[in-house]
Every structure is written in structure tokens, then in C-alpha cells.
Write a structure and sequence with these properties.
With 205 residues, the chain is an alpha+beta fold. The protein has helices spanning 5-17, 23-38, 91-103, 170-183; strands at 50-59, 65-71, 77-78, 80-83, 109-126, 129-141, 154-161, 200-201. It has a single domain, classed as Nucleoside Triphosphate Pyrophosphohydrolase. Strands 1, 2, 3, 4, 5, 6, 7 and 8 form an eight-stranded mixed β-sheet that branches. Strand 5 (109-126) and strand 6 form a beta hairpin.
């Protein structure tokens, strides 16, 4: 699979300019940047043993619940996300596409600035076996009253109270905390009360 050079350039620019919330996240940011500089194919699943992925934590309009997927292969609850594809123009667009495909939600409003980075091992993802996903995580708000669906990649997709996650692993708990802090300013003048950054609307299909 060939990823457009513009997507690689966008991801590099996003990560070079990202302000990490703490030292651990800054170390990951530097790791991701070094990976992209060294690997022109670093956005593709063919790049082993590491490649970038994009995911999204979807938050309900009331900022009280998050939408998680019970992944069919991992048998665990995660935010929505996956690999970048050739048609993705930006890293944020890849995250939004994955969230839309896996949730069935229309009208997601995604903040194009990452909220968390997470590196994790994934068995049998590449041609050589285990790889590391260098995941770039975003947050999106769901419009009120929209209905979600379960994709073929999932066993279930369900809203969970932010303070009662089904499998509260530290990485996911941190993601939820960072995401809620990002979208929590409902006094903002930007769409949906999102933080004062430009938002990415779901593309028209």
C-alpha cells in the first residue's frame, strides 16, 4: 500500500508542532518524529517493526460518556481507530474516517490536534509478525441523539460512563481524562464547545 507523500508530511508537521502534556508524552513525540524522518513508508502497515496509526476517542455531546469498541481480534475495549489508507489526506482525516467507519456515527466533530500518543505491541499485524503501533490519538464530539452501529471489525460498540470504563487500563484512563479536558470548555465559541482549535468535520460521502 502506498501512502501519499502529503499524508507523511502532514503527520510529521503535526507531531513536530505538537505540545506534549508531560515528559513521557514528549519522549513518544520525539520517537514518532524520528521514525517518520527515517521511514518514508512509516505511515503504512508494511513498515516494520513500527508504523503510525490513528485513532479517536468519541465523546458524547454531554461530555459524560465515551464510545468504545470491543475489538474482535483483541477481545478488549478500545477507542476507535486503525491504519492509515492511501486516500487519507491528513492524519486527522485518517482518525476521523476510522471513527466514522467503526461507529456508524454521522456528523462527528474532530479536533485535529492530537490528545495522546501511545506505543503498543500488536501481534501478527505485519508480514514479519508482531509490530508496534505508534498510535496518534484524537478526540471527537458526537452530535446529540445520533445512533451508532457495530462494524465487522467489532464484537460490540457501546457508550460507557467516563468514570466507569469496562476495562480501565491506565493508558485508556489517561486518554479519557485528556480528552474530557480538551472538550470540557463548553464556553468556547468554536463548534460544539470544542477547544479553540479548528475542527475537522466528517467528509460528505
Amino acid at each position: 500500500m502506498t501512502i501519499a507523500p502529503d499524508l507523511h508530511a502532514d503527520a510529521l508537521a503535526v507531531l513536530e508542532g505538537w505540545s506534549a502534556p508531560d515528559g513521557a508524552q514528549e519522549a513518544l513525540r520525539e520517537r514518532y518524529v524520528a521514525h517518520l524522518r527515517a521511514h518514508p513508508d512509516g505511515m503504512t502497515r508494511a513498515c516494520t517493526p513500527d508504523h503510525l496509526t490513528a485513532s479517536t476517542l468519541v465523546v458524547d455531546a454531554g461530555r459524560r460518556e465515551v464510545l468504545l469498541t470491543l475489538h474482535a481480534k483483541a477481545r478488549a475495549w478500545f477507542q476507535l481507530g486503525g491504519h492509515c489508507e492511501p486516500g487519507d489526506p491528513t492524519l486527522a482525516a485518517a482518525a476521523l474516517r476510522e471513527a466514522t467507519e467503526e461507529s456508524g456515527l454521522a456528523g462527528l466533530l474532530l479536533d485535529p490536534v492530537p490528545v495522546q500518543l501511545s506505543e503498543h505491541a500488536v501481534p501478527f499485524c505485519g508480514p514479519t509478525g508482531d509490530v508496534h503501533h505508534l498510535d496518534v490519538r484524537f478526540v471527537a464530539l458526537a452530535p446529540p441523539g445520533v445512533a451508532h452501529a457495530v462494524s465487522e471489525e467489532s464484537i460490540d460498540v457501546r457508550w460507557w460512563p467516563a468514570d466507569a470504563l469496562p476495562d480501565p487500563q491506565p493508558d485508556l484512563v489517561e486518554l479519557v481524562e485528556l480528552a474530557l479536558a480538551r472538550v470540557g470548555d463548553q464556553s468556547s465559541s468554536s463548534p460544539g464547545g470544542m477547544s479553540s482549535r479548528a475542527a475537522v468535520d466528517q467528509p460528505t460521502r
